[in-house]
Amino acid sequence: MSTPVARTADAQVEHKDPTARADIVVTMSVDTAPNPERIRPRTGPVLDVVVPVYNEEADLEPSVRRLHAYLSAEFPYPFRITIADNASVDATPAIATRLAAQLPEVESLRMPEKGRGRALRAAWTASDAQVLAYCDVDLSTDLAALLPLVAPLISGHSDLAIGTRLARDSRVVRGAKREFISRSYNLILRGTLATRFSDAQCGFKAIRGDVAQRLVPLVEDAGWFFDTELLVLAERAGLRIHEVPVDWVDDPDSSVDIVRTAVDDLKGIARLGRALASGRVPLNDLREKLGRGALEAPEREVAGVPRGMIGQLARFAAVGVASTLAYLLLYVLLRTGLGAFGANLVALVVTAVANTAANRRLTFGVRGRSGAATSQVQGLIVFFLGLALTTGALALLPATASRPVELLVLVLANALATVLRFVAFRSWIFATSERAA
Q1: Which residues of 211-233 are buried (b: 16+ CB within 10 A; e: fewer)?
Q2: Contact between residue 259 and residue 202 where contact means Cβ atoms under 8 Å apart
Q3: For 237, phi and psi rounded to 5 degrees?
Q4: Which long-range contacts link 24-27 to residues 24+ away (Cβ below 8 Å)?
Q5: Among 374, 355, 373, which Cα is nearest to 420's?
Q6: Handedness of CA 410, 412, 416, 421 (dihedral sign)
């Protein structure tokens, strides 16, 4: 006999009926935002680990079997593994269905639309587990960190938990490109959304089930930005986020489109920043529903914007305009004698030193000589990012490009470098004086 089910067209979940024979799988359909009381049984596992997948026919079976074997041997509580397939077009759905039939704690959920965030939302809101987690199918994160990740949530000490590759105790093996992108992204988050968590993108996170039912519906993104948005909203609502240093090995065969993901993440940051600044996100309501009481607005923030940031942006923009004009003037004066690349290098070095000194005094209000040398060294590190952007822009220009086109491309590259410079100034180089403000 199969249990009653609620049917919609949004997802399909493979559930095992404990009263049926072991080889029978019951298919149940659930909505992406279901009524928990309507479809949930009274009891469930302590942990539900979701593995979101898209076209992972090669890695899915060995990874799920490895995860199942580890949990069976090492995890001291009842668990479930949910394979959340978001619209795969290869053999992934068939493999997931077979694993759900063969392994007693494995279930399969299939989404008709693509999107990792969409798959996580469907799996988490339909789960009856006390703690919900997810990990990437490549299992790049050492599974030994799983129990330390979920233990504070099981005890009720924390609301969310994340694995971090950027902690001092983490052991990470990955290329310089991905390391640079990851650190730059988290630096941008700190500078724009004033975040305090260290690693938004590690595919190893957990959340208490009761918190997920309130928090996840507020997350708008259905793709890769889902994680970041979830963490930012949790942090702004005053929820406790536990961080666990992890051992992590990069998957060289990852199919993630880095450029497209980066663009989508930047769009997500802009959208979320606007939503927080306008007060559109009901954070106080979330906190009250979780029994924490209304969250008082932090003294350092007004309407979601850190205090003093608007003035800093205005002063930084003025310094930036002056620096850009000085850069272009120097570039034009030196272009004939040194060539494009030589003129670009000299003009950037001179204006970078002047820019750091001006922002130190005018934008962030740092006086005196103490720490000035350190600030300049750090500013030069940021300068090399600007050099890479502008040099790369020049290298991509065809040899027949006109001088006005050349200057326009340099202005655009410098504009991007300027945004990253402000983030670095605020969250790294002058962060101490900013916190003391």
Answers
A1: bbbbbbebbebbbbbbbbbbbbb
A2: no
A3: -85, 0
A4: 25/97, 25/100, 25/101, 26/2
A5: 355
A6: positive
What six digits make up the tokens of 416? Answer: 């991007």
Quick one: which of 41, 40, 36 has its CA closest to 214?
Answer: 36
DSSP state of 15: E
Q: How far apart are CA 51 and CA 82, in angstroms?
A: 6
Name residues whose C-beta falls within 8 Å of residue 41's C-beta, 6 or more positions apart in sequence.
Answer: 3, 128
Distance of CA 140 to the CA centre of its chain: 16
Q: Which two tokens stand for residue 429?
A: 């180089």
Q: What is the pLDDT along the chain (437 residues), one digit of tens a residue?
A: 333 333 333 444 444 443 333 333 333 333 333 333 333 334 689 999 999 999 999 999 999 999 999 999 999 999 999 999 999 999 999 999 999 999 999 999 999 999 999 999 999 999 999 999 999 999 999 999 999 999 999 999 999 999 999 888 999 898 777 787 788 788 778 877 888 899 998 999 999 999 999 999 999 999 989 999 999 999 988 899 999 999 999 876 666 666 677 778 888 888 888 888 778 888 888 877 776 655 454 444 444 445 566 677 777 777 777 777 788 888 888 888 888 888 888 887 888 788 788 878 777 777 777 777 777 777 777 777 767 777 777 777 777 777 777 777 777 777 777 777 777 776 677 765 444 44
Phi and psi at residue 132, to the nearest 5°: -115, 135
pTM (two decimals): 0.64
Of the candidates 210, 227, 250, 253, the residue annotated as catalytic is: 227
Read off the DSSP letter of residue 141. Answer: B
- Across 148-199, where does the E strand assignment appear? 160-164, 171-173
Q: How many CB atoms are located within 10 Å of the residue 54 CB?
A: 19
CA atoms within 13 A on the CB side of 347: 26
Q: Give the contacts of 166 (CB within 8 A, at least 6 positions apart).
A: 182, 183, 186, 198, 199
Largest Cα–Cα separation, the chain: 86
Q: State the architecture of 11-289 in CATH terms.
A: Alpha-Beta Complex (3.90)
Contact 85, 110 (CB under 8 A): yes
Tell me, yes or no, if 221 is annotated catalytic: no
Q: How do strand 241-245 and strand 160-164 relate by DSSP bridges? A: parallel
Q: Where are the domains of the chain?
A: 11-289, 308-436
